[in-house]
Amino acid sequence: MSNQKPLLEMKNIIKDFGGLRALDNVDLSINPGEVLGLVGENAAGKSTLIKILTGVYSKTGGDIIWEGQKVEINNRADSLNLGIDAIYQNLGLVETLNVPENLFLGKELDKKVLGISVLDNKKMEQESRRFIKEIIGLDIKNLNDPVINLSGGQRQSVAIGRAIYWDAKMVIMDEPTASLGVEEVFKTFEIIRNLKKNNTAVIFICHNLEHIFEVVDKIMVLRAGKRVGFSDVNEADKQEIVSLMVGMDAKTAS
Amino acid sequence: MEEQHPASEIVAKREKSLGYYVGVMGPFLAIIIFSIIMAVLAPRFFLPQNMINIFYSASIFIIMAVGMTFVITGAGIDLSVGSQLALSGVLMCFICKFTNIPPILAIPIGLAIGTLLGTINGLIVVKLRLPEFIATLATMIGYRGIVLILAGGFSMTRFPTEFIFIGRYRLFDVFPIAILLAILVVVVGYIMYRYSKYGRYTAAMGGDKEAAVLAGINVDKYKILNFALMGFLAALASLITIGRLDAFHATYGVYMEIDVIAAVIIGGTALYGGVGKIWGSFAGAVLMAMVTNGVTILRLPYFYQYVAVAVVIIISVALYTLRAKRE
Ligand SMILES: Nc1ncnc2c1ncn2[C@@H]1O[C@H](COP(=O)(O)OP(=O)(O)OP(=O)(O)O)[C@@H](O)[C@H]1O
Ligand SMILES: [Mg+2]
Hints:
Structural class of chain B: mainly alpha
Radius of gyration of chain B: 21 Å
Structural class of chain A: alpha/beta
CATH superfamily of chain A: P-loop containing nucleotide triphosphate hydrolases
Shape of chain A: globular
Low-confidence stretches of chain A: none
Mean pLDDT of chain B: 89
Number of domains of chain B: 1
Helix content of chain B: over 70%
Distance between the termini of chain A: 20 Å
CATH class of chain A: Alpha Beta
Number of strands of chain A: 12
Largest sheet of chain A: 6 strands, mixed
Mean pLDDT of chain A: 85
Strand content of chain A: 25-35%
Number of domains of chain A: 1
Strand order of the largest sheet of chain B: 1-4
Strand order of the largest sheet of chain A: 6-9-10-3-11-12
CATH class of chain B: Mainly Alpha
Bound molecules: adenosine-5'-triphosphate, magnesium ion
CATH topology of chain A: Rossmann fold
CATH architecture of chain A: 3-Layer(aba) Sandwich
Shape of chain B: globular
Oligomer: heterodimer
């Protein structure tokens, strides 16, 4: 694993919001097919760090190296083009649109009619039906209902399915299990393992250490904008992680 | 712990209910019910001539309602539509009356002006970050002010035929082509809504702006396009308004935003965005025209129409809300 070339490296990332330094020289490294758990107390800077990757915020300083190349991520489109997908707490789905419309949002299939390109709704529906059933293993009968009518777990599957369908190289999940029932949480773990098998890297932000220890390969701890811990999950122990998060043992810093 | 519903069960629960059909057919149903009432009260309502009159006056609202459907579906609002109609109208009329520009050219110039007025709305909203309600309230007043400055003291009439034929010409001396134009706008609007990225992204940003941005959609661009289209269609409606009576008056389009927004909401478009119903807006506009016409036919003073329209709005929106709750 260690001789593998990292998919992503972030070096000395700084982010200031006015006078507030939300990220202070943060490093991060992740390999293809690796699951990285990102933990920390509220306001530690977790969301800020991943929003720099998704192009929602621009960094104040530092470098992003993607597949060995230095890159700039200035907006969401840059990030999508690199192959970075994200599943947010609200999953990033438009609840009033149906499954195919969400799956293909921003990347619609079209066809020519009389020389004019129009959306190929039928093809998108067939493709969604096939994909959702074969790859995600979900049997959603009425794909044409707005996704607000689906269960939380089904919605989650659609969101993650979108990342898989578009061959994301990395999927970022910011507290994806926060609003799910027990069964649905297990389903999420299963999907993360599938992504891993697919050689997709996953950054998994979560407040529940049980969940983190269940699926991640590596753990990174942020506290007040600084990276205070980074280790293999096998070498980490829960008690130690908790003290790093709350800052009772600052000496062990990275 | 939580019970797991297989997907099929969740769907079964939602098998097309009566409520679903009421939702889709609602405004058309309302037209039928209203027609039955009118059949009892005033059979004259159904004379072909009167039906044509209804659709003739509805055509102006139908065209505007299509534009407003996009605006509202994108989680927006445009209060300035009546003023856009008047301002693009007065400028077209001035071209015909006071310049050497061929009157036929007043039409494309007027449509361009309407598009520009809408684009200005869009830029104010997107660039200056004003809430749409405030931005278009301001331009509603501002555009109207310019109309009154230009043509407040007089009305204009007897325009060249090339200019007014769209609003005035009747096939076989009976059937106004304005009605056909309005239906064409609805059909094209429907195709744009269902089969173009523009329509899809408008629905997406109205449903969840953040999710649309995350999908890489340039929401500012589509927001401006929505206002621009609204302005274009307001100018088109202006052509019909002027042509129908062969006249322009500075009060054209006053209070029109109320009727147009009402037509869209009656038609089933979600007030907070995300779900647009182009054909619903068509039906909503026709229903509004029928109610107005009904008041006239029944020889009630015209202000009764306000009360009637209010009743229609309350009943139809209440029905949607009840249906939404049950689901
Ligand atoms: N857009 C912003 N403007 C100003 N300050 C911000 C902004 N976004 C985040 N911050 C600040 O940056 C710090 C880090 O916030 P961030 O959302 O990254 O924390 P987090 O680790 O994700 O916390 P949580 O677990 O509560 O989600 C906080 O102090 C927050 O107030
Ligand atoms: Mg957060």
